[in-house]
Design brief:
36% of the residues lie in helices and 18% in strands. It contains ten helices and nine strands.
Length: 254
């Protein structure tokens, strides 16, 4: 069996070929509860090249896969993730009987199968030891080369890149607040990632000229896919891999 490509190799192949990698945003939340193991399994089964998740820290210092800083929206519980222990979080229903997975469980599922993208979220205040614990877990599962960290907190991205230079790092924006290429230079990041509605061929070309890669979120319909393909982005993240995957593959039949 051929070795799984690194995330950088995936992005480079996409840039060279014009065929973007497909990422499952929080797994496959159109079909399964977001950020659960069922959602990520579904995304992998549907052929996603990468999966993206969000991570917070529990009261007892474990990394937990959940988007919000509270459990209120996505589970039957209440309260801040940081105030609940792993045992307390594990008793919550995250939809259809699914529970909130630990990062270790998700890494075990994804390792050797797909690229892995983690969005960093500070919450109301930083989690002590979060950065070093995250890097340690990625190393433990031999996933540094297959992973990226992304964030709207650009100073955090810069710090993570300095901590682990082999880790791909990406800066998120809704729309460009300035020159994306300059933002990549300033932070040391590898990937620029705005909402797909902000994308244009000139914007992508500028990032490519800087040596960076370009990913967009969240492409859930044919019009968004068409705009992203015309701009020649390197990665497309979607909530609907069951719909977007076949449309993308139809552009490059086997």
């Amino acid at each position: 069996m051929a070795p799984i490509p690194t995330l950088r190799e995936r992005y480079q192949s996409a840039r060279d070929s014009g065929r973007p990698s497909l990422g499952g945003h929080r797994g496959n939340p159109a079909d399964e509860p977001e950020n659960t193991l069922a959602s990520f399994r579904s995304a992998l089964e549907l052929g996603c090249d990468m999966v993206e998740c969000d991570v917070h820290m529990s009261a007892d210092g474990e990394l937990v896969v959940i988007h919000d800083e509270t459990v209120d929206r996505t589970t039957n519980g209440k309260g801040l993730v940081r105030d609940l222990t792993v045992a307390e979080l594990g008793r919550l229903d995250a939809g259809r009987g699914e529970r909130l997975p630990l990062l270790d469980e998700l890494l075990q599922l994804v390792a050797g199968r797909a690229g892995f993208v983690i969005e960093l979220k500070r919450g109301p205040k930083p989690y002590p030891g979060f950065d070093s614990l995250l890097v340690e877990r990625l190393r433990r599962f031999d996933m540094i080369g297959q992973s990226a960290v992304i964030s709207f907190e650009h100073d955090w991205v810069a710090a993570m890149k300095k901590m682990e230079p082999d880790l791909q790092c990406g800066v998120l924006e809704v729309v460009p607040a300035g020159d994306p290429a300059e933002l990549l230079r300033r932070t040391g990041a590898d990937v620029y990632s705005p909402h797909y509605s902000a994308v244009s061929r000139d914007l992508v070309d500028g990032v490519h000229a800087q040596g960076g890669f370009f990913g967009v979120w969240t492409v859930d319909d044919e019009a968004g896919l068409k705009q992203s393909l015309e701009a020649r982005v390197d990665a497309i993240f979607t909530n609907r891999p069951r719909d977007i995957g076949p449309l993308l593959r139809a552009q490059w039949p086997a």
